[in-house]
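Internal tracking record. Fields below are filled automatically when a chain is submitted to the structure queue. Please do not edit lines marked as system-generated. If the sequence contains nonstandard residues, flag them in the REMARKS field before resubmitting.
Queue: standard
Priority: normal
Entity type: single polypeptide chain
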Amino acid sequence: MLAAVRSAAVLGIEAYDVTVEVDVANGLPQWTLVGLAASAVKESRERVGAALLNAGFVVPPRRIVVNLAPADTRKEGTALDLPIALGLLLATGQLPPGSLDGCLFVGELGLDGTVRAVRGALPIARRAAAAGCTLVLPAANLGEAALVADLPLAAPASLGELVGQLARGAPSRATATATPAAGAPRPLDFADVVGQESAKRALEVAAAGGHNALLVGPPGAGKTMLARRLPSILPPLAEPEALDVIAIHSVAGLLADEALHARERPFRAPHHSISEAGLIGGGSTPRPGEVSLAHQGVLFLDELLEFPRHVLEALRQPLEDGRVVVARVAASVAFPARFTLVGAMNPCPCGHAGDPAHPCACSAADVARYRARLSGPLADRIDMHVAVGAVPVRTLGAAGHGEPSAALRDRVREARERQRRRYAALPGARCNAHVPGRWLDTRTPVDAAARELLAAAAERLGLSARGYHRVLKVARTIADLDGEDGVTVPCVAEALRYRPATAAQPVAPRAAAAGA
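SYSTEM-GENERATED OUTPUT FOLLOWS
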């Protein structure tokens, strides 16, 4: 007898339909699985067989063929265990005909018949909603799938429970209950940072416009402390952004329950020993890398120049395109990667170049060799190069605190709202950093004096066309923070402070302003 069960699999962060066909025929007892199944899928024979027997069902000693259609697309993961088991029960008459109609099934089976969680439940839920099906999935994935509006859900605890429901007519509907995590740690706050007012202002500008930033300063100056507080001033994720972020983390197997209803932007800080595949994404089965896990959030690379150069160079294309395409022989998979890059580095190998309190012990050749680890093309894609000086020890215990993150966040949210209205008709642009430079150059009001200052500075600093437009984007963000309709001379002057004279060699921001 032949049976067909509707299911789905994930490719990248999108799901596609899979039909599980099961044929049970006379012949020598054997189990054949076809349809480009990966190792985890092939192992379903042992899991499904044991689960059926332990749940009290019969696995007949006959010739069983399971086909996963479409047969020319590779299937990964364990989500097809449940539809394979149901197809076998239907083909052997242990489920009534038509009992699986109108449903889409996913789930891993334990040897005792329990239904266990799978990766990529949100993309599968989106696919089920588009197909107009009831989604039957593990209870552990219920909260994730419930984010898709108006999708009928069922979440049986075991195979036996599900078969009993199907035999009575239909699976029981399930609803998810939001359970926010209790006792969440206090978020990091800019009020904890003593001094560093110019660096705080630079990060406020970076947050308001989505600009990449590079913090340059001696050890212990507070670069890491500042960078880790950047998410505290970013606006919360909008609903479409949050669903994309949850889908990426679900596919990667890193989705936490408390993240389902939170709207905080992701913050990723990989160690400098990370591989190119770990940072960008890849593997024999393409998985999202750190740049995609930081989508709509912050990617912080501490000790930037300690990363292998070829790993850093791989950032160039995601920084421009906002996505990563992982090409393999079987297929090409695209992962979104629209993130704000924040790097931190020392000015020289010993870390004390330009620090009057600690003489630098590095030769000019050592400094040049050290800074050359950051290539010119990559440095040119970093909008803001920020000097972070050492804070005098005596001031650390001074009374009073800096401006809290809440106040900075309010200004950032207002600036981003102006940008949202401005770019409402421009696809893919939510903030100034994402707008094509030519579009901004021709359609944003810039004072004649400000445009002349920008042109003169571009010639004197040797800016590329990309560098010129990135300075204009930063100036536009400063104008948004200040509530200005157009870009003025002070906006351009401040933006030029964050642009080094030579793209590959960051300098103190005020020196750049003086050169302008």
